[in-house]
Design goal:
Layout lengths: L1 E6 L3 H15 L3 E5 L10 H5 L4 E5 L7 E5 L4 E5 L14 E6 L2 E7 L9 H20 L7 E6 L23 H12 L2 E3 H5 L8 E2 L11 E2 L2 E6 H4 L2 E6 L15 E5 L3
Parallel strand pairs: 1-2, 7-8
Antiparallel strand pairs: 1-14, 2-4, 3-4, 5-6, 6-7, 8-12, 9-12, 10-11, 13-14
Helix pairs in contact: 3-4
Length: about 260
Amino acid sequence: MRIVTWNVNSLKARLERVESWIRAVQPDVLCLQETKMTDEAFPHPAFEALGYESAHHGEGRWNGVAVISRVGLDDVRPGFADGRSDPDPDARILWATCDGVRVASCYVPNGREVDHDHYRYKLDWLGRLHDDVVANTDPASDRIVVVGDFNVAPDDRDVWSPAAFEGATHVTPAERDAIARLVGLGLVDVFRERFDQPGLHSWWDYRGGAFYKKQGMRIDLILASQPAAAALDFVLVDRNERKGEKPSDHAPVVADFVLG
């Protein structure tokens, strides 16, 4: 099963690229983030024409997540089910079951600045994701794949220059601890499990030629429970999709699992 996560930074602006990429790469499950559209505007017919079902959780100009599947799309749930009564105010997480694999497409809050309310919201959001996984899945026995733009570089290997990010969001101990807590549940960062070297990024700023200078971050993650991670065949960042006309600032991350 080929599972992909991709922050498209506006699906309306990137739809033709996404359609072309699907035809070329043939993902089984494609999880999108930052669709930036309402549910009513989501282009279900475009994906149906390619042989895919799709589910979307959106709100308009900001955020928005989708799960697009050609292997089934069941038990779709937007938002958290973590036992709290306050719903997430943003459209940032969508769960679905695709051929027996429970998949979550996540767009973690950016955090903006360390002393900003949005940073506190980010940490709370990551805590809610942890609690949602605990309450509704069993990573020890279930096939769980939690993917998305986490807006956190898990360690210093995942940023082009740790010194350049000192004091900024995305690299703080609290954010990294939140990712470590997810890993502690039995979720495996499958890309980092396969590749341990620095300089392998999934996001590059549009400004200053960052992509060509290799000044990026690895913030787009695929976290798989052990029953899924044990079936990993390969994983890669499709850097070519960051090139060309009107790319997203994120590249797709592709993982193939050989699931019996």
